[in-house]
Specification:
The strands form two sheets. Strands 2, 4, 5, 6, 9, 10 and 11 form a seven-stranded mixed sheet that branches. Strands 1-3-8-7 form a four-stranded antiparallel sheet, with no helix packed on it. A hairpin with a 4-residue loop joins strand 7 and strand 8. By secondary structure, it is an all-beta fold. Helices cover 0% and strands 54% of the residues.
Length: 118
């Protein structure tokens, strides 16, 4: 699976951004896809996940109610709609994919930077 993330940028606190992750190379029906982020000096952390087939979603507590993960079957694309952004959301955001029977993400996109200013 090849993943290409895009959509990062700079926004003021309270603003919104939508990240995209275009997937190719494999049928995704047996995969879960997710977003992770890594802030400067911190470890990569989980943000949100969606089962490609069925659409079950999971969110980190820190983004619940503000971020929405979704996917478009026809475009083979994963999205992360981010609203009410906070300075602490500043990070490089990565999309990833894992086989549903695996606990580890096997495939990663290149990351896209989100900067939220106060």
């Amino acid at each position: 699976v090849q993943l290409q993330a895009s959509g990062g940028g700079s926004v003021q606190a309270g603003g919104s951004l939508r990240l995209s992750c275009a997937a190719s190379g494999r049928t995704l029906s047996s995969y879960a896809m997710g977003w992770f982020r890594q802030a400067p000096g911190k470890e990569r952390e989980f943000v949100a996940q969606i089962r490609w087939s069925g659409g079950t979603t999971y969110y980190a507590d820190s983004v619940k109610g503000r971020f929405t993960i979704s996917r478009d079957y026809a475009k083979n694309t994963l999205y992360l709609q981010m609203s009410s952004l906070k300075p602490e959301d500043t990070a490089v955001y990565y999309c990833g994919a894992r086989y549903v029977r695996s606990t580890e993400y096997q495939y990663w996109g290149q990351g896209t930077l989100v900067t939220v200013s106060s």
